[in-house]
Amino acid sequence: MACGWKLDMACEQIVLRLPGWVEEFLDERGERFGTEDERMRLIIELSQLNVEHRTGGPFGAGVFEQQTGRIVAVGVNVVESYNCSIAHAEIVAIALAEQSLGCYDLGAEGRPTHELVASTEPCAMCLGAIPWSGVRRVVCGARGEDAVETGFDEGAKPSDWVGALQSRGIEVVRDVLREEARAVLRKYRESGGLIYNARRARRGQRS
After folding, report:
1. Rounded CA gap, 151 and 93, in Å?
2. Residue 111 three-state SS
3. What is the pLDDT of residues 61-116, one digit of tens each?
4. H or E element at residue 130
5. Residue 106 lies in a domain
6. How far apart are CA 136 and CA 79, in angstroms?
């Protein structure tokens, strides 16, 4: 599995890499996760370890083959460590999955159906990226309001964002192990984790 993302731009570079502990974590857990709960539990554990290792915010995500449960790529929030506001867990997971498969469209003809599993519902930015990624299913743990309760700003999401995805043929499943996912958010806040600010009364921009 690719664990780095590198884009050359003339004389400049954008380089985002998963924290070093992620590869060892995945090696210990195998590559197939047969049930929805197993996949979500893996992603929640990633979000928890990201907090414990102080490598980013309390969010994790992964792209899986829907039928086999094979993990294609994972992402954790690395906004703070890379000074990059777009480095949300879902964005990192999608980008690494596309790089690993050598295709920008995870729903391309002839490919397995892919799903995105996220420890918390997508913010406005990640929501916008999901239809373009080609995933056909999104599985969420904590709700957006749980992130807001922690202090993060979810952005300008449509009230019926679930319906908006479903209208594009993308299934949405919510509240999978929600309490376990919420616990990570609470722990982050209680431990003094940075609620990195955009422009909204010192509340955060996240994911």
Report:
1. 23
2. coil
3. 999 999 999 999 999 999 998 989 999 999 999 999 999 999 999 999 999 999 99
4. helix 124-133
5. yes
6. 26
Q: Give the tens place of pLDDT for each residue, 2-28.
A: 445 455 545 467 888 999 999 999 999
Residue 121, both tokens:
């519902």
Enter the pTM of the model. 0.90
Q: Token digits for 111?
A: 């490919």
Q: Amino acid letter at 59? A: F
Is residue 97 one of the residues assigned to a domain? Answer: yes
Does 3 map to a domain? no
CA-to-CA distance for 204 and 200, rounded, in angstroms?
Answer: 7
Query: CB-based contacts of 122: which residues, under 8 Å, 6+ apart?
Result: 90, 130, 138, 140, 161, 207
In whole angstroms, what is the distance from residue 49 CA to residue 56 CA? 9
What range defines the domain where residue 68 resides?
32-205
